[in-house]
Amino acid sequence: MTDEILLDRTEAEALAMRACLAAGAGETTARSLVDATLSAALYGPATLGFPHMVDYLDSFREGRINGDPSPSCERPYPAFFVADADRGIAQLGFDLAFEQLVEAARTFGVAIFTQTNSYTAGELGYYVRRLADEGIAGLAATNANAMVVAKAGGPAVYSTNPMAFGFPLGEGSLPLIIDQASSATAYVNIVAAAAEGRAIPEGWAVDAAGIDTQDAAKALAGALLPFGGRKGANVALMVEMLSAGLSGGPWSLDTPSFREGSASPGVGLTVVAMMPGRTDDGLVERARRQASRLQEKGVFVPGVTGIEYPRPATEGLKVPRAVFEAVVKIAGA
Asked: Which residues pair with 205 in a beta bridge?
């Protein structure tokens, strides 16, 4: 028996919608989450597609996400948007402000969207990929509950605090998308390894006693390590200030777990949209040539290398069997 289920996109979309609605999400929330899930499944890390959707579904049912929120957005400065997700998903608040954010970026050259009071942001690359599809460069930062130590043996003070960057490479090309945690690995990778009984590499995490471990289950009871030691911890702090600091959202130390309890994590998200020069500057084409030159030299260009574009409409989506069964069970509830 294969460990993966192959679904065509229509089947995957329909299943995801049924599951979201059955778990308690409203129509607009479900639509935003499904769009982001399919985007991650097609172009982002597979673990942040359907596997992470299970966290959302559980959180709808257990009260960590408001399934029918009324997000609000203020504009204290012409190119600065401040949103409150009303305990809903981060993607919905971003979707509702997206057209105005794009218009502001095209008018002023740069625009900022910051949001608090949401569930975790999901695949962070999704937000900058949306902007890149509009020909706009983007930078995004978010936090969640504390699970990363600043140094081995210390207390968990940061979340994985990821940062994403996107740069458009022109019509007919995928954008460059860098999406990575400030921890040595993403939390979902630890969860997946624990579920499958796999060991994790040395340097990824420590156990509850603060000792380096390769046991994923012990890592879940302990904490993750920052990449590159102190430099990774500094990146985590910068992301914390960009997300929680700018949005007014809770610091990771004060954020409830996104997998337990009934309280919303209420986290912060900040997205900076930047025009890549004037329309006649040719900077996007210049970036495309540079990305191609790097690939010719064997450099991995994230978001571009190894991903076919456009994706064949008949191409199926591979979903881990355990994830598929969990989503089907919820969809049929």
From this structure: 213, 224
